[in-house]
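Input sequence (70 aa), recorded before submission:
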Amino acid sequence: MKMTMQDMRKLTSRRETHGMRLGWYKGVKGLFTVLRVLPPELFDKLMTTNEPIRPNSSTPKNPHHAGDSA
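Predicted structure, token format:
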């Protein structure tokens, strides 16, 4: 089943998904569950504030690009 743009906005606008890599949902198929492990300070910021959280905040170093820094 294909997702509509409205479905995508509903999914990616959830506060719980903020800080994940751009396009993270492309790797999730079917009834998979996404489990995130966050450092305590990022978890608290995510769950208790309305502060903006940059994409990739929960993945500070990309293992596929050796030149990327934290």
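Checked by second reader. DSSP finds two helices and no strands in the chain.
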